[in-house]
Specification:
2 copies of one chain form a homodimer. Chain A has 202 residues and is an all-alpha fold. In chain A, 69% of the residues lie in helices and 0% in strands. Chain A has 9 helices and no strands. At the A-B interface, helix 7, helix 8 and helix 9 of A face helix 7, helix 8 and helix 9 of B.
């Protein structure tokens, strides 16, 4: 987490405090979901974990649904920061294919912790492809495929690379299919290598 | 469409007539969706097209939702018949990779015509992976990958092969992404070839 996550107004102490409080509450929410799963995410638990009154949490997020949306946005922003400005291999500096593999591992990590929240978002009224976060990830992956000099229909290959990272699929595989997270990561990395390897040896 | 679609009781004329009427109504429904899109599928239109009273359609399917479910089931059964017992390349007799490519083309064809119905089904309450039809398609594709002697995690590769055929994805690509059906089919065939080609030349 860096200060860059939330651009602050110039020296406005009140807004600065508000931003800090918001981050404090969201960090508490992340820790709760991490430890107890999505069901552990209640307004009460967040308040007590962050050491504030329950009213503060309600004033900030309106409802548990609002808190969940803010949490997803928080996680997504942190991931975007990491792949755009963070250290390699996720951030700039590593070869594109290594960055792509690191991106997938990071995504699986997020789904393992916040999968239920993500699944609800994916299956909500509007198309899952309409989410701004989805577009950012799509652009990032397409750019890496181009940088890796992959030949072919990059747009459709990007869909193919991203499909197995979708929370709905991952949760189904982990729970109903009883596959392990390690197997999913390994299988996805193998898929990426198949998709990106050149047609014939030079 | 063959008689095998609906197993009939032994010589029971009444049940035989009922099955025939059902098929008559469903064929009318398929034709309507084909010509006018999903919005053209009304109980009235099916009745008038099949030359029966509206009451007959309601008695048979209960509601428009019931008709839509029956229609999806009808299409799915016809596709299953084709890949299990029909002529090659979709049915037995062609090399497994050719059968796989034919399966994808057939799936795209179904989505183009009945995409809206399929998308509703995919995004309904229960997981899209819970549908019996999904399991049949999954088993078929996994079997073809094995028969083609593809090495690797066949279960996860099957998910990767099937993901781009999902109605939710295809409709998004056709409408919001303005991709053409031809491009989707070509891109999917290319994906299958990348996934199935051997690691290194012999």
């Amino acid at each position: 987490m860096t200060d860059a996550l939330l651009p602050l107004a110039n020296g406005d102490t009140e807004r600065c405090d508000a931003a800090r409080n918001r981050r404090l509450l969201l960090d508490a929410a992340v820790a709760l979901v991490d430890e107890r799963g999505p069901d552990g995410l209640t307004m009460d638990a967040v308040a007590s974990r962050a050491g504030v009154g329950k009213g503060t949490v309600f004033r900030r997020f309106g409802s548990r649904a609002g808190l969940m949306l803010a949490l997803l946005d928080h996680t997504e922003t942190a991931l975007q920061q990491s792949f755009m400005f963070g250290p390699p291999p996720l951030g700039p500096g590593a070869p594109p294919l290594e960055r792509l593999l690191a991106y997938g591992r990071a995504r699986f990590g997020v789904v393992e912790v916040q999968g239920e929240l993500l699944r609800s978002a994916e299956n909500s009224g509007s198309s899952r492809f309409a989410a701004p976060a989805w577009a950012v990830g799509f652009t990032h992956v397409a750019g890496l495929l181009r940088a890796a000099d992959v030949q072919g229909d990059i747009e459709l290959l990007t869909y193919a690379v991203l499909a197995p990272l979708e929370a709905t699929v991952v949760l189904h595989q982990l729970r109903d299919g009883r596959l392990t997270p390690e197997r999913l990561v390994r299988g996805w990395e193998d898929l990426v290598l198949r998709i990106t390897r050149p047609d014939s040896p030079e």
